[in-house]
Amino acid sequence: KLFFTDYGNAAKVERCDMDGMNRTWIVDSQIEQPTALALDLINKYVYWVDIYLDSVEVVDYQGMKRHTITKGRQIRHLHGLAVFENYLYTVNSDNLSILQINRYNGTDIQSLARLDNAKEIRVYQKRTQTAVRSHACEVDPYGMPGGCSHICLLSINYKARTCRCRTGFILGSDGRSCK
């Protein structure tokens, strides 16, 4: 799945399959400017920062169990968001500090370090990296990913795929080759 935020005409947090199909709004009320998003891949939660409402909130992958982690002026300048164990990590662009927020007790916020011009933060941890298994977009004997002549996108699961074409090409009737 792909998770993303949008604060165009109607602010929301959404999810879809990797090929863009099955687009679903998981948060579409009491939300204004969701800017940063992070996933708890193990427990299947979506965290986001709303810089207009000055809040950090969470829902599960289906948009249920929503609650506010923390709210207040300190949220106004947050960029980037990452989850690791019991904490959320983010960058405060106002004072260029990395903040650690206890995701179970939002009042426990600590400044860890200062960085020049940081806008994003990522945490890489072995436990959250999924094991590599065969999937529908593996390169075939002819060197084409998933048998697609241009682009292969995983679909509803790792066994299904959708072929797409680069700009200026159209997908042929076989659903694999681009012309």
From TrEMBL:
This is LRP1B protein. It comes from Columbina picui. LDL-receptor class B repeats lie at residues 1-43, 44-87. GO terms for biological process: canonical Wnt signaling pathway. One of its GO terms (cellular component) is plasma membrane. It comes from the Eukaryota. InterPro entries: 6-blade_b-propeller_TolB-like, Cueball_EGF_LRP_Nidogen, LDLR_classB_rpt. GO terms for molecular function: Wnt receptor activity; Wnt-protein binding.
